[in-house]
DNA sequence: CTCTGTATATCGTGC
DNA sequence: GCACGATGTACAGAG
């Protein structure tokens, strides 16, 4: 195995060998993984400590660090993209990752490294995702009758003092309509959002007629339905 | 290397060898990683496809799958805990992960496996985290004067028709107070949340005097400050 | 299961 | 940089 290979890996390496693989990997913008017994300390937006245990640590060339245990989607500790890594050896293999704004530091100490690897990554592809809120918006703009007969979209992302409205338009009677789209079942927060937009737009337009607010989502919770009714807002069921 | 080792790894394995390591690993509740050129297809709450490229795939014994590229904190594709994995070979190494409620499927096809590993994980430790909203609440309960002189907490998680209030109490004049805590700078959503609680509690109490609503956070955005003023709500600055 | 709210949320976009 | 909203958000707690 040479450094020109796209993968450099060692099982049960010495701390020094592990250090070499990690350092070389970080320098060459490889994706580096370390598995072994470690402790983890974090200080920044919050603070945390994690006692000794086996974890899988991934360092990405963009400065991301992820510490994974055997459970859960979420890493037990991490550092976001843009951090600077630093690896050193004392009685353990030490990985330190820092950033500023906000000031944050992650410190991983490996007593024992069971596996280390550096991967050269070539990934030219972008994820193609559908079924998002934007897809839902395009569908409504293609066929405004999905909202109600006579509905006419006038603009998307219309700016109000309360933020940008998903779809702004008019109904069959020429009344202003604010449409808020959600790709999944919504709770009270979405009602609050729609209410803010309607309120802001009524002020903005100095309109005599009230502005209608329509929440478009697959479904709503009971509490959200009550809030909609209280505020005179409407609901249209639409799957993404 | 034998199966009693805590790590089983192969660099540039054949598809068949990779299949063996992955299958054995999944069967023995190991944490399994695969690195190589693959495509990824997802169908469930949304749909996605990802063309060929080098990615790092992790399968956890709890049924989690994570597909990572060389960038970002977030996996490009994933499957949450509780999924069932299935690995097979045709012209590629195929990993399929499924779950129900909601019905979701992830399919990863490796044309070429550059590295595969199975790790036995022993992790007895729990993360100790501080600086959360709960810590902030305990600090306020220990020293209610942090809110204002004369404030007396009466209960936490008090239930209202709009949900549970962080801290419910009385001010020096015996007026009811709703406190909403946030560990970081807040925007309009938090104001809406507090407003809902205040409104619900006023109804609940049939109180003649208005209920005060106090947002406690390190800081607020301009828009949130405006909304607070419009609704007659208050703000107290407090770091977590 | 659903509902609700928190998160070291992350991420993208616009200003 | 900050602000704001979407996310296949994940996750925990309560009902």
TrEMBL record, chains A, B:
Subcellular location: Cytoplasm
Regions crossing the membrane: none
A UniProt-annotated Pfam family: NucS_N
InterPro entries noted in UniProt: Endonuclease_NucS (IPR002793), NucS_C (IPR048301), NucS_N (IPR048302), NucS_N_sf (IPR049173), tRNA_endonuc-like_dom_sf (IPR011856)
A molecular-function term among this protein's GO annotations: DNA binding
Keywords: Cytoplasm, DNA-binding, Endonuclease, Hydrolase, Nuclease
Keyword match Hydrolase: yes
Ranges of residues in domain Endonuclease NucS N-terminal PH-like: 30-125
Role description: Cleaves both 3' and 5' ssDNA extremities of branched DNA structures.
Name of protein: Endonuclease NucS
Organism: Halapricum salinum
Gene name, Swiss-Prot/TrEMBL: nucS
